[in-house]
Design brief:
The chain is an all-alpha fold. It is 79% helix and 0% strand. Helix 19 packs antiparallel against helix 20.
């Protein structure tokens, strides 16, 4: 709690003057010059303390006020300010001790009382805080703010009736207050007293009879509590005051919809959409609010109808396309939704979330050309957003544009702070650097992931496989791929990786077992796995069966560049 410096000077000099009177009464023969010097030194300490507080130099302020308190142990102004320092330092238990001393010495000082009450609140000592606020209210004619504080404390205690009494006292002192009435309404609704909440709303309507918002608020309250018929009167009164009050039309549409009166519902919505005075932003807000009230198939059909109508009425407005796209996304019509988001971006390229939605759907649809195109556009408008660089890197990696993928991933890594995203980037940087032939950097990227996530399947698989292709660190590759199949014993891809590492290590019998398991447990096994099986059989001396497997692999597809030569010559070519 802060006070202006003038108040603090009053607190200090009031204490100081009272203390000087006590000193004189005790020792009339004292040295006046010495007392004057001590007083000046004390005042200098207080001035320094206030200056340091203004500079937010709490350590030096604490030193100054502490020294002042040592020189005059009952100097309540110093106790008050030391409590303020402890509050700033979030040392509330210590602040409480200083504040209690100041209050006990001078219980009639409202600033000391307010500080102590606030500390009690922060420490959840609500009964003590409430007692102090009640004392303040009793001591001060102008007590409206203290009733507000008392009400907040009573709410924290769960004493709703006492909170209401405090709000009533506040109203009697200061008149109708919108925030207070809304708070009282929340309490009455918590107590299940709808009639009382309605009476509070009627106070606002009587206070500002020309304001349609209070009529709409009451209508919304009644609808939310299944009193739609009563709401109609207030909503229609609001529309007489302001025919362009879109929310009133929306609420009326909801009332009619609940009653099964779809003609009335459509009439109200048409009043909004055909009103030339209402811009597209208002109509989007109105339609969004209406859609939140709907559920099920009815919601989807009605939502699409009105969203399409909105696009027709405002074909150059980005938000209209976004609303329709959102609805289509919810209905899993992703391609159509993505195209509408793209359309929206043509009219407003400055919305970050819009580009995020476009790129997410591009990725989900596996439309890599679109992902590259749209990520490049997004980066043009948001060059400091790491997610957009990440999307661009993914697209280039899939297209095997390794240098571009590396550049994008490196830029994204610099910009992102999210550990999971950085880990994902490092995993794919490992892939990109490997594709570019920069094996040392590839290994470094993979190691960064494994340091934080030693069970990362993507990295365990790719890192071990690439090491086997390079015939490097085969023991490490075996350890990683073995861990992989232990975690994923039914995965044909991971079984193949482990088998291939074993193959390179010339452990052919063991490699054969894992390849057979991969083939037996997966109906749609890839041609690569079958080709590897043929290679293992060849190494084990079963050349005829090896050729059979190579031919089968050729039919499936996804083969090495040597598959035709293997079949033609009946020999292993690597």
């Amino acid at each position: 709690m802060k006070i202006v410096s003038v108040i603090f000077f009053l607190l200090f000099f009031g204490d100081s003057w009272a203390q000087r009177k006590k000193d004189k009464s005790k020792d009339l023969s004292g040295n006046a010059e010495t007392q004057k010097a001590e007083q000046l030194a004390l005042e200098a300490l207080i001035t320094d303390g206030m200056r340091f507080m203004a500079m937010d130099d709490l350590a030096r302020a604490d030193s100054a006020f502490g020294e002042a308190l040592r020189q005059r142990p009952n100097l309540t102004a110093a106790q008050y300010q030391l409590a303020e320092i402890r509050i700033k330092q979030e040392k509330l238990d210590q602040a409480l001790l200083y504040s209690q001393k100041a209050y006990q010495t001078n219980p009639n000082n409202k600033y000391y009382l307010l500080q102590l009450a606030q500390i009690y609140e922060d420490l959840h000592k609500y009964s003590e805080a409430a007692k102090l606020y009640e004392d303040l209210i009793a001591q001060n004619d102008d007590n409206a703010p203290y009733n507000l504080e008392l009400a907040a404390v009573r709410l924290s205690q769960g004493k709703l009736d006492e909170a209401l009494r405090a709000y009533d006292n506040l109203e009697r002192a200061s008149g109708v207050n919108e925030d207070v009435i809304h708070q009282k309404q929340r309490i009455y609704m918590q107590q299940g007293k709808l009639d009382k909440a309605v009476q509070e709303a009627q106070k606002l309507m009587a206070f500002e009879p020309s304001d349609p918002d209070y009529l709409i608020e009451l209508g919304e309250l009644l609808i939310a509590n299944e009193h739609g018929d009563q709401a109609i009167e207030y909503l229609e009164r609001a529309l007489k005051i302001d025919p362009d009050a879109g929310q009133a039309h929306v609420l009326l549409a909801d009332v009619y919809r609940r009653k099964g009166d779809m003609e009335g519902c459509n009439r109200e919505l048409n009043a909004v959409f055909n009103n030339p005075k209402l811009g597209s932003d208002n109509k989007v807000r109105v339609l969004s609010g209406y859609l939140m009230m709907l559920k099920g198939d009815e919601a989807r059909e009605a939502g699409l109808k009105w969203a399409k109508e909105l696009v027709k009425l405002h074909p150059n407005e980005s938000k209209a396309y976004v609303l329709l796209a959102d609805l289509l996304t919810q209905q899993n019509q992703k391609a159509e939704a993505r195209d509408l988001y793209v359309k929206a971006a043509q009219y407003d390229k400055s919305v970050y979330q819009l580009w995020g939605a476009i790129l997410q759907i591009d990725g989900e649809l596996n439309q890599i050309d679109s992902l590259l195109k749209h990520s490049e556009q997004a980066i043009e408008y948001f060059p400091n957003q790491g997610l957009f660089w990440y999307s661009n890197g993914q697209g280039n990696l899939i297209k095997r544009n390794y240098p571009k993928a590396i550049d994008a991933f490196e830029e994204g890594r610099k910009l992102l702070n999210d550990n999971d995203l950085v880990k994902a980037i490092n995993a794919q940087l490992g892939d990109a650097y490997n594709g570019a032939g920069e094996h040392e950097k590839s290994d470094e990227a993979y190691e960064l992931v494994l340091k934080d996530d030693p069970n990362n399947d993507h990295v365990l698989n790719n890192y071990s496989y690439y090491l086997s292709l390079r015939k490097e660190k085969l023991e490490i590759a075996k350890q990683m791929s073995e861990k992989l199949v232990e975690r994923n014993p039914e995965s044909a891809t991971y079984l193949d990786t482990y088998a291939w590492v074993l193959y390179v290590a010339k452990e052919y019998e063991k490699a054969k077992l894992f390849l057979e398991k991969a083939i037996q447990t997966n109906k749609d096994v890839s041609g690569t796995i079958v080709e590897h099986y043929g290679d293992v059989l060849y190494q084990l001396g079963d050349k005829q069966k090896a050729v059979e497997q190579w031919k089968k692999a050729k039919q499936i597809g996804e083969n090495s560049k040597f598959i035709d030569q293997k079949i033609a010559t009946g020999t292993l070519v690597e």
